[in-house]
Amino acid sequence: MKLLLSWILHAVALMGVAYLLPGVVVEGFWAALWAALILGLVNTIVKPILLILTLPLTVLTLGLFYFILNGLMFYWVGSILEGFQVNGFWWAVLAALLYSLFATFLSSILFQEKVRIERI
Predict the structure, then answer these.
(1) How many Cα atoms are found within 13 Å in the side-chain-facing hemisphere of 105?
(2) Which domain holds residue 85?
(3) How confident is the model at residue 115, as a pLDDT?
(4) 84 Cβ partners below 8 Å, 6+ apart?
(5) Of 1, 27, 31, 83, whose CB neighbour count within 10 A is largest?
(6) Domain total for the chain?
């Protein structure tokens, strides 16, 4: 259940990014759901491999290349998926940054754990 809610939250975050940035186009909620699913799969499978391959460049740029890598993944998903379009590489970098911020914020609101303190 938590995975399904997380998937929907990521789709909502993607819709928010498309609303704020003119360089990102999402044609509807179903397209956002598919894009969130593909982004999740790409970030789970492809991104760790690319991160290892580009580790020297990431270290050399003090971690700034990680943002470029996020933008590349976002741009790539926008180019292969119909209904989700990114109109340039720098839009993809900015959209990936906003997408991660929105998704983290929404997840922290919905999935916050309640801490119970017991008195002795």
Answers:
(1) 10
(2) 2-110
(3) 52
(4) 14, 25, 26, 27, 31, 32, 34, 35, 77, 78
(5) 31
(6) 1
Beta bridge partners of 86: 24
pLDDT confidence band for 119 (50 / 70 / 90): low
Quick: pLDDT tens for 4-52.
999 999 999 999 999 999 999 999 999 999 999 999 999 999 999 999 9
Q: Is residue 18 part of a domain?
A: yes
The model's pTM:
0.84
Helix (H) or strand (E) holding 108: helix 89-110
Q: Measured between alpha carbons, how far is 29 from 83 in angstroms, rounded to an integer?
A: 10
Q: Which two tokens stand for residue 82?
A: 């119909």
In a domain, 116, yes or no: no
Q: What are phi and psi of 24, to 5 degrees?
A: -120, 125
